[in-house]
Specification:
binds adenosine-5'-diphosphate, single chain, 53% helix, 5-stranded parallel beta sheet, 13 helices, 15% strand, elongated, alpha/beta, 7-stranded mixed beta sheet
Length: 536
């Protein structure tokens, strides 16, 4: 029998393989040799040893061994083929073997082997067909799923864009309502009328804040919310947030205070608008859900790299607390800890969802710990840029906020408001006049240029962007061509609070930017900031 070839897998067996032919040859040789030796020994005992006979017997023994060897080799050949067939089947090649027509059990064995190989090949073929069908079905399902996901994403994108569009369109008239109510409330009114208007104004503010939340959320969901990286003083921003919540805290006799770590760099680079929103949301909630006791905001952090500061903001209150089983859900959209909250405290359940998304956009995280009846602590970490070598913060005086900032001449500053929308004109004028500024109006960019030409005494320009005749960007470019107006601050007011708008305004030569609807306190603080910069 042939030795198994290398390369193919064969059954492991101990010791070398010895063929049947060689075993049988050895056996017949030993047997015949024994017979010859016995005959010769018998002859020898009878003194009749014949050398010729001995030689003949030896030759016959050799001949018999050779004949049996060759015969058995022939007989074992089909078995060799069978063994080769089994080896190749084990290695995955299902091929029939050539069956010798010996008419005995060996031929039957060969035929049976071929039958088995055929059956195996047929079952393998049907398995392959089924596998192919299965794979096709999986591919079809995957394609259908991908298509469904694409459709859902497109629908969600369309929904977000629709919401962003509609809330943007609603914010402009909302701004008009708030501004007009502001003007009306400035008049001498009967107590009843004043109360009605104040209620209307507070409803308008709630609606505006809801619209802002929806706009932010749809921007986040549409993946269109990107962060700015501008240097700012977090201490000033924090002071603003605390000041805005102080009246509400005062109503409940809640002490509201901020503690700033001395390690906080004097200036960090990040998105002040969004960081303000995060702090305002958390502090607003803490004040809202604390009827008495305290709210404390702690701000600090550490440098994780020479230019990367891990900012930590902790807002701790001694308020109502949140039930443990609700803690996981308060960050979901439109979710409040219990159904009575919106009745008792208002709110929509969007604030924390937005806060968490904004924190995550900053590569940070927000954590909450709460004990029912004892209070809640929110901890936010945010990655910001800062200069470790910048040193200790400089004492900075906060911009004046109670009286109007004087202009260059010492008299109230003169502001040129360039705006084509009459409602917006009235609102901006009313807010600024209330603070004692002297206001001049222009309906478009060209009129603004004419007014600047006619009088050099303006301290600041508030410039709308989209206007007929000459838009705000073009008007600013023309103003910036003239060296005499180099020091004149121009602040953009645009309804398109979209990414890239600010860059376009700054590129055109504007110095600052406020998005519409213009919030009175933001308008005043921005104007103050630029007027102070101009005078110092
Ligand atoms: P809203 O304040 O508009 O209801 P938020 O998303 O800001 O929505 O908050 C979701 C819910 O989380 C709140 O309704 C309230 O149940 C709970 N919550 C948030 N902050 C506090 C807090 N400081 N103390 C108690 N409950 C809080």
């Amino acid at each position: 029998m042939a030795e198994p070839t290398t390369g193919d897998t064969v059954l492991a067996r101990p010791g070398p393989l010895r063929s049947l032919a060689s075993k049988f040859t050895l056996f017949t040789t030993v047997l015949a040799f024994g017979v010859v030796v016995s005959i010769l020994a018998l002859d020898f005992r009878q003194d009749g040893f014949d050398a010729g006979k001995g030689m003949l017997l030896v030759v016959m023994v050799v001949l018999a061994a050779a004949i049996s060897h060759f015969t058995l080799r022939r007989m074992a050949r089909p078995l060799s083929q069978l063994q080769a067939g089994i080896t190749s089947a084990r290695n995955g090649r299902l091929e029939p073997i050539q069956v010798s027509q010996t008419g005995d059990e060996v031929e039957f064995l060969g035929e049976s082997f071929n039958g088995m190989i055929e059956a195996l090949a047929a079952s393998q073929r049907s398995l392959r067909e089924e596998q192919g069908l299965f794979e096709k079905r999986i591919k079809d399902r995957t394609d259908q799923l991908e298509e469904a996901i694409r459709t859902a994403q497109a629908a969600s994108q369309a929904k977000s864009e629709f919401l962003a569009g509609i809330s943007h369109e609603l914010r402009t008239p909302m701004n008009g309502i708030i501004g007009m109510l502001d003007i009306a409330l400035d008049r001498q009114l009967s107590p009843d009328l004043a109360e009605y208007l104040q209620t209307a104004q507070s409803c308008a503010y709630s609606l505006l804040s809801l619209l802002n939340d929806i706009l932010d959320l749809s921007k986040i969901e549409a993946g269109k919310m990107t962060l700015e990286k501008i240097p700012f003083d977090l201490r000033v921003l924090l002071a603003d947030c605390i000041k805005a919540q102080q009246p509400k805290a005062g109503q409940n006799s809640v002490s509201l205070r901020a503690v700033v770590s001395p390690d906080l760099p004097s200036e960090i680079a990040g998105d002040p608008l969004r960081i303000r929103q995060i702090i305002a949301n958390l502090v607003g909630n803490a004040v809202k859900f604390t009827e008495h006791g305290s709210v404390e905001v702690r701000v600090g952090g550490r440098f994780v790299e020479p230019r990367q500061f891990l900012l930590q903001i902790t807002v701790q209150d001694s308020g109502t607390g949140i039930p443990a089983d609700k803690l996981l859900y308060i960050f979901d959209k439109f979710t409040q800890a219990d159904g009575t909250i919106s009745r008792n405290f208002g709110g929509t359940g969007l604030g924390l969802a937005i806060t968490r998304s904004l924190v995550e956009l900053h590569g940070g995280e927000v954590q909450v710990e709460s004990e029912l009846g004892r209070g809640t602590t929110f901890t936010v970490t945010l990655k910001c840029e800062a200069d470790a070598a910048a040193g200790a913060p400089q004492e900075k005086s906060l911009p004046a906020t109670v009286s109007s900032t004087p202009g260059a001449s010492g008299s109230p500053a003169r502001i040129l408001v360039v705006e084509d929308n009459h409602v917006n004109q009235k609102v901006v004028t009313a807010v600024l006049r209330k603070r004692g500024f002297s206001i001049e109006l222009a309906n478009d960019g060209q009129e603004a240029l004419n007014k600047l030409e006619a009088s050099a005494a303006f301290d600041l320009v508030l410039m709308d962007v989209q206007m007929p005749v000459l838009d705000g960007l073009e008007a600013t470019r023309l103003i910036r061509k003239e060296a005499r107006w180099d020091a004149l601050p121009i602040i953009a007011m645009t309804a398109h609070a979209m990414n890239g708008d600010k860059e376009r305004c700054l590129e055109a030569g504007m110095n600052g930017y406020i998005s519409k609807p213009v919030h009175p306190s933001l308008l005043l603080s921005t104007v103050d900031e630029f007027l102070l910069q101009k005078t110092t």
